[in-house]
């Protein structure tokens, strides 16, 4: 979807149309999504709202309405399901679809056109699509003609297309990895393709094989409809930096409530609790504790987070943000720790 959260807000409030809009924000918050009018000023998601305001003095901040976004996302998901059961959601506004066995005499390009038209008719919103023979290239193609665009990369053009792109454009290559590659003279896909598998593996470990393949337009990952959620988390940025431990512990309580509620609704339990702390100077740390069993309930989740917080709280800059994440997920109530067999037990 194109600038999904911001586009929903502009759709529902005509006064926002054609204006720079940021979802989220507040004096100490961050931008969750930015309209294309805001992006022209350099405003991007995950940007601190104060910086966004400096870049675009006329920026309009609106509070997020996640219930609305989820409802629209479900409408879109139902459209996808009319074409294939093989849908791998990446977020509320993005998914991979495998159409290989569901073309029914049509081309994938034609189906992409139909899906985009049906999304516009059902929601009043625009979507961009990428069509190709693997996930890596389809993702690159989906960004090629945003907003409201369609781009196709056929098999015979895959490697050539990859070679022409800056390495920073590659999905799965973050800023830190791009900087490391650039230090080795790898600036484009063509530069990456010139490196041997041994060279890439020695410098990038297990990811070296992935980089070697994508430089040649190769990606064998399947579209997985039952994509497993790896963690459930919640965080909050505070209007004023916290400098009192008792007050910070009080702020952990609603975060624990939210995480446990989402875990319960999903029927999931987890063994690892991670605390995220961002200080007033924007330094960020995490602390985690793993149990040999699933966390028993909201109170234990809160207590572990509280114990993780106490040793790291004292800082002259105060605490700007706190977050709690539950991971190593499994079915709620299931003891995931394997029982060690005794000397006389039989497997």
From TrEMBL:
Site (Substrate discrimination): 5
InterPro entries associated with the record: DNA/RNA_pol_sf (IPR043502), DNA_pol_Y-fam_lit_finger_sf (IPR036775), DNA_pol_Y-fam_little_finger (IPR017961), DNA_polymerase-Y (IPR050116), DNApol_IV (IPR022880), PolY_HhH_motif (IPR024728), Rev_trsase/Diguanyl_cyclase (IPR043128), UmuC (IPR001126)
GO cellular component: cytosol
Sites where the protein binds Mg(2+): 93
Catalytic activity: DNA(n) + a 2'-deoxyribonucleoside 5'-triphosphate = DNA(n+1) + diphosphate
Enzyme Commission code(s) on record: 2.7.7.7
Cofactor-binding details, from the entry: Binds 2 magnesium ions per subunit.
Residues annotated as domain UmuC: 1-174
Record GO biological process: DNA repair; DNA-templated DNA replication; error-prone translesion synthesis; SOS response
GO molecular function terms attached to this record: damaged DNA binding; DNA-directed DNA polymerase activity; magnesium ion binding
Enzyme class: transferase
Primary location: cytoplasm
Cofactor(s) named in the record: Mg(2+)
Localization (cell): Cytoplasm
Domain of life, per lineage: Bacteria
Calcium keyword on record: no
UniProt keywords, alphabetically: Cytoplasm, DNA damage, DNA repair, DNA replication, DNA-binding, DNA-directed DNA polymerase, Magnesium, Metal-binding, Mutator protein, Nucleotidyltransferase, Transferase
Catalytic residues, chain numbering: 94
Subunit structure of this chain's protein: Monomer.
Functional note: Poorly processive, error-prone DNA polymerase involved in untargeted mutagenesis. Copies undamaged DNA at stalled replication forks, which arise in vivo from mismatched or misaligned primer ends. These misaligned primers can be extended by PolIV. Exhibits no 3'-5' exonuclease (proofreading) activity. May be involved in translesional synthesis, in conjunction with the beta clamp from PolIII.
Similarity field: Belongs to the DNA polymerase type-Y family.
Protein's UniProt name: DNA polymerase IV
């Amino acid at each position: 979807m194109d600038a999904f959260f911001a586009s929903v807000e502009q759709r529902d409030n005509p006064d926002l149309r054609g204006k720079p809009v940021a979802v989220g924000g507040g004096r100490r918050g961050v931008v969750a999504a930015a309209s294309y009018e805001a992006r022209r000023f350099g405003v991007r998601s995950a940007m601190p709202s104060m910086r966004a305001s400096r870049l675009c003095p006329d920026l309009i901040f609106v509070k997020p309405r996640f219930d609305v976004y989820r409802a629209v996302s479900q409408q879109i998901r139902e459209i996808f399901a009319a074409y294939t059961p093989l849908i791998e959601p990446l977020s509320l506004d993005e998914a991979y679809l495998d159409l290989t066995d569901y073309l029914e005499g049509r081309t994938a390009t034609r189906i992409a056109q139909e899906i985009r038209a049906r999304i516009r008719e059902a929601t009043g919103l625009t979507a961009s699509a990428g069509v190709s023979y693997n996930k890596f290239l389809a993702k690159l193609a989906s960004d090629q003609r945003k907003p409201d665009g369609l781009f196709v990369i056929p098999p015979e053009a895959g490697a050539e297309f990859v070679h022409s792109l800056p390495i920073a454009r590659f999905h799965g290559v973050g800023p830190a990895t791009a900087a490391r590659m650039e230090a080795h003279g790898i600036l484009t896909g063509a530069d990456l393709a010139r490196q041997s598998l041994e060279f890439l593996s020695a410098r990038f470990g297990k990811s070296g094989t992935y980089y070697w393949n994508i430089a040649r337009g190769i990606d064998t990952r399947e579209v997985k409809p039952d994509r497993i959620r790896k963690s459930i988390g919640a965080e909050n940025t505070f209007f004023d930096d916290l400098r009192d431990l008792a007050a910070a512990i009080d702020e952990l309580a609603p975060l624990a409530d939210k995480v446990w509620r989402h875990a319960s609704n999903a029927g999931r339990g987890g063994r690892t609790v991670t605390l995220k702390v961002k200080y007033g100077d924007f330094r960020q740390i995490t602390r985690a504790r793993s149990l040999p069993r699933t966390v028993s309930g909201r109170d234990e989740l809160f207590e572990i987070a509280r114990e993780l917080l106490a040793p790291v709280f004292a800082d002259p800059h105060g605490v700007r943000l706190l977050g709690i994440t539950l991971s190593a997920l499994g079915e709620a109530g299931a003891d995931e720790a394997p029982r060690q067999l005794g000397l006389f037990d039989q497997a």
